[in-house]
């Protein structure tokens, strides 16, 4: 049986702030509109964390089985690749976290059964099942969608529109079109983290037949694509602020802008793939700080 430390490493804790960012954004938006529900928010957080860990474990398993985690990989060594967790153990863990995600998701829907119709609850259950399927089949199975360059779309949808709008909807009982702007912002920043990962792994992904966006367009255009993701995220977030502007304090999120500028500059300047790895964590943490300052600015001022 693999040691606890190996499992913690396989969970990839550095990715969790990114998952919490989207849920946090929805919480702040609901609070600003006086719709915040503590219990619903907690269950959203738990479900999201389980889904993120499920995705990380499935990615560890899938990339090894499909050859992306080979001796040519420059990122951190994976659990199955290194042998510290067996294939059987990883498959069992994937089942466990899929079950945990489904269970907490059902409990979450139970919390809102009195304010949402049966059809809407069924729709959310379907979205939850799709999220579990997306987490597992990103790099696993016979035709993983991450290997044909659809990972960016999936991350944008589930970390952006689904996470933010869905969490807001479950608290407020509905959603307005302007909520799409911060939701899109979170989705784009999350896609940016995936893009740094894919820029780092271009060569090993090519060898494994994984056609990520940077593999398709090359490292140079992959970096301009990264700049576009970050820029559009900030534009969407800023548009929402100006649509609801009440105080100069609404702009406190601008204090995090230098972190993103610095990040983009380093990504453009860094040519050695393995040196890009720290910028995944840096962008994830910068995104969380961005959401916290953004939320405080729009909620309390």
Structural class, by secondary structure, is mainly alpha
Which percent band covers the strand fraction? under 5%
Give the helix level as a range of percent: over 70%
Low-confidence stretches: none
Question: What is the general shape?
Answer: globular
Radius of gyration: 19 Å
How would you spell out the order of helices and strands? HHHHHHHHHHHH
CATH secondary-structure class: Mainly Alpha
Whole-number count of domains: 1
**Treating each run of at least 4 consecutive H or I residues as one helix, how many helices?**
12
The averaged pLDDT comes out at: 93
Record field, number of beta strands: 0
Straight-line distance between termini:
51 Å
CATH architecture assignment: Orthogonal Bundle
Tell me the CATH topology: Farnesyl Diphosphate Synthase
What would you say this structure looks like, in words?
With about 300 residues, this protein is an all-alpha fold. The protein has a single domain, classed as Farnesyl Diphosphate Synthase. Helix content is about 70%, strand content about 0%. It has twelve helices and no strands. α3 runs antiparallel to α7 and α11 runs antiparallel to α12. The longest helix has about 30 residues. The mean pLDDT is about 95.
Protein traits:
301 residues; mainly alpha; Farnesyl Diphosphate Synthase; 72% helix
Short description:
By secondary structure, this protein is mostly helical. The chain is built from twelve helices and no strands.
């Amino acid at each position: 049986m693999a040691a606890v430390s190996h499992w913690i490493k396989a969970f990839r804790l550095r990715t969790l702030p990114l998952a919490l960012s989207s849920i946090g954004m929805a919480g702040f938006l609901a609070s600003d509109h006086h719709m915040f529900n503590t219990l619903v928010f907690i269950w959203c957080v738990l479900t999201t964390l389980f889904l993120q860990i499920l995705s990380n474990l499935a990615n560890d398993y899938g990339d090894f089985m499909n050859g992306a985690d080979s001796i040519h990989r420059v990122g951190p060594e994976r659990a199955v690749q290194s042998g510290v967790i067996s294939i059987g153990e990883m498959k069992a863990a994937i089942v466990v976290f899929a079950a945990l995600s489904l269970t907490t998701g059902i409990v979450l829907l139970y919390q809102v059964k009195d304010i949402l119709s049966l059809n809407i609850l069924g729709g959310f259950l379907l979205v939850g099942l799709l999220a579990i399927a997306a987490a597992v089949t990103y790099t696993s199975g016979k035709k993983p969608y991450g290997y044909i360059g659809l990972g960016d779309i999936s991350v944008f949808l589930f970390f952006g529109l689904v996470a933010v709008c869905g969490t807001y909807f479950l608290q407020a009982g509905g959603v307005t079109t302007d909520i799409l702007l911060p939701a899109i912002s979170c989705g784009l920043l999350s896609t940016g983290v995936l893009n740094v990962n894919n820029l780092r792994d271009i060569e090993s992904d090519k060898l494994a037949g994984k056609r990520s966006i940077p593999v398709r367009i090359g490292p140079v255009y992959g970096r301009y694509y990264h700049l576009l993701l970050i820029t559009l995220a900030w534009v969407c977030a800023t548009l929402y602020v100006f649509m609801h502007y009440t105080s100069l304090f609404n702009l406190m999120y601008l204090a995090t802008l230098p972190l993103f500028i610095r990040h983009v500059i380093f990504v453009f300047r860094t040519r050695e793939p393995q040196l890009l790895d720290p910028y995944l964590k840096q962008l994830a943490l910068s995104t969380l700080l961005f959401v916290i300052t953004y939320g405080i600015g729009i909620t309390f001022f």
